[in-house]
RNA sequence: GCUGCUGUAGCUCAGUGGUAGAGCGCACCCUUGGUAAGGGUGAGGCCGAGAGUUCAAUUCUCUCUAGCAGCACCA
């Protein structure tokens, strides 16, 4: 072996270093500034510790805080370890388990010693303080290789039963790594880590909350306490993140829905929405928009039964694979006597539909279909009920009754790619109309599924093909494949929207399904005069009206575009002598199709301006005696301080223009 | 469904082992005013449901229920 190793650096230069040098040594050789800034290294593309000796000739890139993604990942991982160390320092006997980095921080799952209650929010300040101490102590983080037995012995001796269990399941001969923090604390970890705790900014993290979590994510296992933190490279980033969270809280659709009087939820119908007039106006506008879209795209709208016999759900497969999410109903006249059960043991079952697909197949099956009928696109604003776990319910985003913009395209094998591409174009147009950008992802076969592997290969390939050929399977569109995330009957293409503050929401989907046509015996007569099985494409763009409206409220922070705003204008009078003129103006506005309300109350104009601004009404039309005499109106646009005085006719023209839906412009 | 926290007026929230309070909203009165809160008076509560402890429970304990945050699951 030679005495020197050759290090290729990103700028193309090659540096010779003595055998056994570390990336840190290389940094030092390049310059003291870099030596100080270097946090870790990419060795042949793999992220590694700065002090881990290089093995032979390598390509090396030093990672500094400028490499934000890597630096954040390292910092968050280190914060997690410091968190665990702090908790054990404060409460000896605490068991530690796992602590990874997350999208905006880190967490660590711990189990409090039996001598105290599980950790709570009240403990967080003390833990934060201890973490700062550990960071300020600038403890070196040192990698060591241990054998499996060493690990098992150590964890067993210290009563770390979870760690011991985990270690015992690791491969026997693999080199396992531990990291020391100083000389007094260690955790087993694959690494890599920063060279010392002092590289962390003690002002760049905050512990956020505690929550229950299970050992290995299985609810049959021990309950642990998960301590969540958010972690960044510096205080400025942390503050920006905290501001973002505040912004998200302000946009919370549950809060805005209450304030704007759009809808409410109550325990007697938990998980189902009571739409108020203003909220339902948004719905109606979306429904009208979607009807224009599907009418123009060759769909046929239908309406299908809410309740079907259990035998039908058995045949479709839902009874077997989906029953725990279904509401079942006895098909029997209930007993009205005071005595005895309401329903007998002999009752047959029916169920509320959790999906629209079987009913659409039943429509397809009516009459004999020819290949000339295909593709046949059946659309429904389908109201579905799903018996969701109570803990999953969340405002409009996760409910038990929801209406999908659901359609099923029955087509031949040859038509699949074209139909998927047409759908991609339709979805693209619609999401852009609402101002969303999106990413497309392919959810591949789940463990629990119907159908042969060959069918799944085919289905996955054709979805992938369609997107690739449409040029959408690129980084720019966030293309990604998600193993195991498909539906039980088909793989899914998923559209993930990005909203105004950068959060993503899965809404649209298209799935190619060969299972359901088979199970429900759908067929068409081909050119050859023989019976063939159609392929069924399940697809939705809004996903559900409930959820999509929730997303819109948060995306626009309640300030919906004029065409969607439940109240597009409020006419507010300054003095009651202007009421007659205002009433007349309102009639004209209404005749022009503007959704306008009046505010003739005995309040000052300041008060009215404030109230309607907070209610996020796009236009406030102010009328006093001056306007009444001149036939004008003072228009105040939401978010602007200036007012514009114009004639009523001009105001109507302007409002009509502003209120035109994007697809009709 | 699991764990933790919470449930007091329409809304947001104080508070107490001796059956309750604020602000906003609402009603009425005065005020008719020019672009983000004019003044006064008043009405509103089985203190989430059930059980237990107690002379006495909205307050303490338990069970249930709903909400919230996570987990698990999903449009």
Automatic annotation (TrEMBL):
Residues 1-64 form the TGS domain. The keyword Zinc applies. InterPro entries: aa-tRNA-synt_IIb, aa-tRNA-synth_II, aa-tRNA-synth_II/BPL/LPL, Anticodon-bd, Anticodon-bd_dom_sf, Beta-grasp_dom_sf, TGS, TGS-like. SMART domains: tRNA_SAD (SM00863). PANTHER family: THREONINE--TRNA LIGASE, CHLOROPLASTIC_MITOCHONDRIAL 2, THREONINE-TRNA LIGASE. Belongs to the class-II aminoacyl-tRNA synthetase family. This is Threonine--tRNA ligase. It comes from Altericroceibacterium endophyticum. The lineage of its organism: Bacteria, Pseudomonadati, Pseudomonadota, Alphaproteobacteria, Sphingomonadales. The gene is thrS.
